[in-house]
Model the fold of this input.
Amino acid sequence: MTAVAGRSGASPLVSVRDLAVHFPVKKGLFGKPRGVVRAVDGVSFDVFPGETLALVGESGCGKTTTGRAVLRLVEATAGTILFDGTDVRALKAEPLRKLRRQMQIVFQDPFSSLNPRMTVGATVREGLIIHELAEGAEADARVRRLLEEVGLRPDQASRYPHELSGGQRQRVGIARALAVEPRFIVCDEPVSALDVSVQAQVVNLLQDLQRDRGLAYLFIAHDLSVVQHVADRVAVMYLGRIVETARGEALYDEPLMPYTQALLSAVPVPDPDAKRQRIVLMGDVPSPASPPSGCVFHPRCHHPAKDAACARIVPPLESKGESSGSGKDADTPHLVACIKQPPTSVDDATQRAAGATHSPQRYLPVVGAR
Amino acid sequence: MTADPLLEVNDLHTTFATDAGPARAVDGVSFTVGRGETVGLVGESGCGKSVTALSILRLIDGAGRIEKGSRIVLEGRDLLSLSEREMRGVRGNRVAMIWQEPLSALNPVMTVGDQIAEVARVHAGASRADARAKAVEMLRLVGIADPEQRAHEYPHQLSGGMRQRVVIALALVMSPALLIADEPTTALDVTIQAQILELLAEVQQRMGMSILLITHDLGVVAETASRVIVMYAGEVVEEAGVRELFAAAHHPYTEGLMRAMPRVGGSAERLATIPGAVPPPTDWPHGCRFRERCPYAWELCEREHPPLYQIGDAHRSRCPLAIEPERRNHPHLPIAAATNAGAGA
Done:
């Protein structure tokens, strides 16, 4: 399987190959597993030092599970996860605990992810103590510096989470993650619960921290407009798979996977005069317990060349020819999982054998959404 | 502003008793909704937009009360002078409301068909069979495939988008004149949001009702509303036709919101922010309530609580930049930014 490659030259900090996370579905209280939910089903990507890879998709697409599996907060069913060359899945408890210093997470809901009985200071301090990075007065000093770095006042260290606003709590969540000096942070919908004006403050903070500390982010989000502001590269997930990935500009300028097109066209535009073609998808996302055959998106697909082959052939995530971006990122490929967008390695003969009635044709109903 | 509005809210004050003193959640709000019109009520958490909606339906509970002098007139009737019994005849019949979280608006132990049928029986006195038929008809109206089948299902068996369709069906059973939609798509995925917004526009056209759409999302407003009311700290701070507002927002808060909003199609540059956060409703700042977060504020803003200035025909803004526009050319760092972002958000 092709990996979602990043910049050439540098070696990836995080490298994920063919990641799968399947959850058993049980019947009754003591029942036997009667099937599996394929929450994540063959996902590959790299995250390079200092860059942001965004995983976008709608509820249930597996983006959050992917993020957690990378940190081993949920156990993967298959695949490999390398962090700076270390095989994360093979680690025993103690080395894993040590490695977690370098990989942190910021959650969506800063209220439920903070201990209500711990002060802000104690919350941020905890990681320093556990990882034996500092203690006593030195730890206190570092907590103060961290709070200032995320835009809180040092005297707010004695506050409890309920005394803070949503934006302030998210800043605490970020300070806590930063305390152990990680190199990689999974940001799981970090601004989704915040109001617009506060959301902008936190987005800018995350970008400043990335620049100052050279952090790599796996930025998990459903909001394509936020993602456009933060991501170097974007991977779109649908039903546990990556269906399209490219540099941000390329993805927003020329989305090729029909699902990405629908997703982009559905984002409301704050301009009453905007004339945009909206693709309204029919129905709901199918259950990951029984994903559709072939291309998982085919039952809702609006590509004019969609035909029987789409229900039979699992589309490879493959390059659609053009290089995207420029300069040092010129060779970041634009990968799309769709056998109806040319060029494709699934040739006409193969498609016809699978019942195809249409040849692949370039279909671009949404252009220049950026 | 419409000559013969469907709804007229006049000087609405809704206050809640809290440990920190009275919280003036809605503090002198006036606006109208015309017949067949969609009005967007926009603002961030804590600005009072949801309490305004609940006040219209008189669903303010024990700790809160609508102050004397407030007026809410629907179809010529003063809702605040009605008895609770009369009010029950208004809710659901003339005004209906849909909520952000469809699951909590539905009864988990009743089939969706029975829930819709119940409304038809209670409000219209329909027979069992008629109510049943009405339920299926409503489910079909809101675009649920296989309505006869779906009517027998429970809310947990439906997807989020379908649940919101059922909630809309429930709200429309009695063909209300006004539908209040409080963040109807906020809990939904963006592709499902597109479906629901399309559905709302469709049923509005078919039934000719007015919609008061409460949302924090300027994109949703731009696509659905014809007129927009922006609330901040319990007050209306700006009101304009949707084109006018997006072309030339006047109030610095509206301006800030629009700049802070990341948009697909915008530049990928750094987002503008509004420093600080909305103040608590127990302690609105004196003078202009946005003053500490405002890049233009001057001494007048501290001294006087600004009135709503008329900017154009149907455009009003609670900001004295209306009378001293040249001050817009000299923005400065807001107080909230100077005293550290930590003081706010």
Notes: Residues 103-181 of chain A form one domain. Chain A touches chain B through 55 residues (CB under 8 Å). Chain A is about 25% helix and 20% strand. The first strand of chain A starts at residue 14 and ends at 26.
